[in-house]
Specification:
By secondary structure, the chain is mainly α. Helix content is about 90%, strand content about 0%. It has four helices and no strands. Helix 1 packs parallel to helix 3. The mean pLDDT is about 85.
Length: about 190
C-alpha cells in the first residue's frame, strides 16, 4: 500500500513543480498563449486534487501505527495545494485585469488621467458636502427663528386673550354702572 502512496506522491511532486512553473509564467504571457496556459493549469490543478484524494484514501488503508507519518505528509501536501490555488487565483486576477484593460482600451497612461479625474470628482464632492452642510445650517437656524416667532405669537395671543377678557369685564362693569347710575337718576329726579 505504501508503494501506491509513494507513486502518487512522486506524481504529485512532479505535477506541483510543473504547476508552480506554469503559474509563474501566466502574468508574463499575453493573448491566446495566456488563455491556453490558464486552461492547461486548470486541468492540471484538477489532476493534482484527484491525486491528493487518492493519496488520502491510501493513507486511510495504512495500519494505525504507520499512519501518523503519512498523515503529516498529507497535511503538508494539502497546504502546498492550497498555496498553488492561491497563487493561481492571483495570477488569474492579474490576467483578468489585463483582459479588462484590453477590452476597455486602458493603458498605463490612463491611470494618471483616472487619478486626475478621481481628484476632480473628490473636490466636487467636498464642495457639494460643504454646500449641503451650509444649507443644513441655514435650515437649522431658520427652524430656530421660526420656533422663536411661534413662541412670541403664542405669548401675544395669550396677551390679546387676557386683554379681550378684561375688555369684556370692563364692558360688563360699565353696563352695570350705567344701570346703577340710571337707577340713581330716576330716584333723584322722579318723573312728573
Amino acid at each position: 500500500m505504501s508503494s501506491d502512496f509513494e507513486t502518487y506522491e512522486q506524481d504529485f511532486g512532479t505535477l506541483t513543480a510543473e504547476l508552480t512553473s506554469k503559474i509563474g509564467k501566466i502574468p508574463k504571457l499575453s493573448g491566446d498563449e495566456k488563455k491556453h496556459l490558464v486552461v492547461n493549469v486548470e486541468k492540471q490543478m484538477e489532476e493534482a486534487r484527484e491525486l491528493l484524494e487518492q493519496m488520502d484514501l491510501e493513507v486511510r488503508d495504512i495500519p494505525t501505527q504507520s499512519r501518523g507519518m503519512y498523515s503529516n505528509r498529507m497535511r503538508s501536501y494539502k497546504q502546498e495545494m492550497d498555496k498553488l490555488e492561491t497563487d493561481f487565483k492571483r495570477s488569474r486576477i492579474a490576467y483578468s485585469d489585463e483582459v479588462r484593460n484590453e477590452l476597455l482600451g486602458d493603458d498605463g497612461n490612463s491611470s494618471e488621467s483616472q487619478r486626475a479625474h478621481l481628484l476632480d470628482n473628490t473636490e466636487k464632492l467636498e464642495r457639494s458636502s460643504r454646500r449641503l452642510e451650509a444649507g443644513y445650517q441655514i435650515a437649522v437656524e431658520t427652524e430656530q427663528v421660526g420656533q422663536e416667532i411661534l413662541e412670541n405669537l403664542s405669548h401675544d395671543r395669550e396677551k390679546i386673550q387676557r386683554a379681550r377678557e378684561r375688555l369684556r369685564e370692563t364692558d360688563a362693569n360699565l353696563g352695570k354702572s350705567s344701570r346703577i347710575l340710571t337707577g340713581m337718576l330716576r330716584r333723584t329726579f322722579p318723573p312728573f
